[in-house]
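Bumping my old thread because nobody answered last time. Still need a sequence for this structure:
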């Protein structure tokens, strides 16, 4: 019986360890316009310190070992809990990220958070498309504003200009570190957008019925 109990304890301990195994996840992509938002949902199996950071502004080697080219847009991020409540936002990573070799700016993001077990969502945006809060359903400050960076700082490009006037690309690269699982998720349209869509759909249906 003692051996059986010990074996059972070891097995349960092993299963618990496996269920809370932490890993790092890397994502890359490209925006087509300034007001795009990319969502990444991740799971924390046990209380952990989770790090969220981008690589695309200054470039570098991400957690997957891939070399990311410099030149991407000025990234910001927002972190939400499982209910959609805004936890924190980050603009610039400061000394935690490298400066861009051309502009010298440290415009990659870096946020470390002590999180309890649960599911979270991080959004990747371009400055200054901050989450409005207090909930992800409230949307982002530049929703529907298209290419709002055009001409910023004297930049001649029609999109992806940083505040210093540097023309960037729509490329982004993002790491989620020390979590159980992570995956890109589609953004659900905001309530106003859904209402507008339904109104338009109803009008089309009404016209077809009358016709």
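Sorry it took so long. Here it is:
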């Amino acid at each position: 019986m003692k051996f059986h109990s010990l074996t059972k304890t070891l097995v349960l301990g092993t299963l618990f360890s496996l269920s809370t195994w932490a890993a790092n996840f890397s994502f890359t992509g490209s925006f087509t316009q300034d007001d795009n938002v990319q969502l990444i949902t991740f799971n924390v199996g046990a209380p952990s310190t989770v790090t969220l950071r981008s690589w695309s502004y200054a470039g570098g080697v991400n957690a997957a070992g891939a070399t990311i080219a410099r030149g991407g847009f000025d990234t910001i991020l927002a972190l939400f809990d499982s209910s959609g409540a805004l936890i924190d936002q980050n603009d610039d990573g400061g000394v935690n990220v490298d400066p861009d070799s051309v502009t010298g700016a440290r415009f990659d993001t870096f946020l470390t958070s002590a999180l309890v077990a649960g599911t979270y969502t991080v959004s990747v945006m371009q400055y200054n498309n901050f989450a409005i809060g207090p909930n992800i359903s409230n949307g982002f400050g530049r929703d529907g504003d298209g290419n709002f960076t055009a001409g910023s700082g004297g930049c001649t490009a029609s999109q992806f200009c940083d505040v210093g006037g540097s023309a960037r690309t729509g490329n982004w690269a993002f790491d989620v570190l020390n979590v159980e699982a992570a995956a890109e998720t589609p953004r659900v349209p905001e309530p106003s957008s859904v209402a507008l869509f339904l109104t338009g759909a109803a009008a089309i249906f009404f016209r077809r019925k009358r016709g």
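The helical segments are 2-19, 191-210. Let me know if any region looks off to you.
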